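Researcher: I'd like a candidate sequence for this fold, 265 residues long. If you have to choose between options at a position, lean toward the conservative one.
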């Protein structure tokens, strides 16, 4: 199988570091803090800090010997229901395509996984590393989801959650908010990266030579928000929208009836 990126490289906005005096792009250098010398690439060695300030050194040959040999195959180990893998383990997503002469096997695996409702766990080695991946059907093909290993997941118990109790009235109100905002499908096109869009517009204006005069927005002052008040306000807004939608629907229905009568006459 062949691996393809699922993301668009042009989607991200990257800024380069320039010299403020002349606008020249800067080069990165490594400087030894002990003697202040600029260290060239061929003078560098890699080391692992096993205790504060103490390192064990590795040569390039030693590191190369530790690397996993890259393979052109994905070794499937087991099949399990897709929903059994918590999204917290998801790292990166890639598209898969058939290798030369592998069209039939590729389509067979895709259809079999789709029919069974299961995904395949597998091992995949590339660039000296071994990855745990999940293969799942997507559209008419396959997606390879790179997963984190168990020891790469931070335990939830390390996150302070407090000991507050949830009151029945609060839970009831929260459930009302959820009921009014339920959707059965995910529509990613309904959402846009507003910061990226705003930044691109400013970049375009700067390229055209326009002066940017907007003042940066003031940082919001810290304030304690009452969750119940916020939920009530949200519920009130949603309730206000319903009568307006019903009135619009009623008016649309009346227009259709009038049009129907005219067509009969």
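Model: Candidate sequence:
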């Amino acid at each position: 199988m062949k691996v393809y990126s699922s993301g668009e490289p042009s989607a991200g906005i990257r800024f380069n570091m320039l010299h403020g005096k002349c606008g020249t792009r800067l080069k990165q250098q490594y400087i030894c803090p002990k003697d202040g010398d600029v260290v060239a690439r061929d003078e560098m060695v890699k080391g692992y800090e096993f205790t504060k300030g103490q390192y064990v050194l590795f040569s390039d040959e030693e590191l190369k010997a530790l690397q996993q040999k890259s393979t052109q195959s994905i070794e499937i180990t087991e099949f399990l229901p897709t929903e059994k893998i918590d999204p917290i383990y998801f790292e990166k997503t890639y598209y898969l395509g058939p290798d030369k002469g592998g069209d039939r096997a590729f389509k067979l695996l895709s259809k079999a996984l789709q029919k069974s409702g299961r995904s395949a766990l597998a091992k995949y080695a590339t660039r000296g590393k071994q990855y745990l991946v999940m293969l799942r059907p997507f559209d008419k093909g396959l997606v390879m989801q790179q997963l984190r290993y168990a020891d790469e997941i931070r335990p939830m118990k390390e996150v302070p959650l407090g000991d507050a109790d949830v009151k029945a009235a609060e839970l009831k109100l929260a459930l009302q908010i959820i009921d009014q905002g339920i959707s059965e499908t995910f529509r990613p096109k309904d959402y846009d990266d507003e910061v990226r869009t705003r930044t691109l517009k400013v970049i375009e204006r700067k390229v055209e030579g326009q002066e940017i005069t907007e003042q940066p927005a003031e940082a919001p002052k810290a304030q304690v928000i009452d969750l119940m008040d916020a939920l009530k306000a949200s519920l009130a807004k949603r309730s206000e929208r319903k009568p307006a939608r019903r009135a619009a629907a009623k008016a649309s229905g009346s227009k259709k009836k009038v049009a129907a009568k005219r067509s009969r006459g």
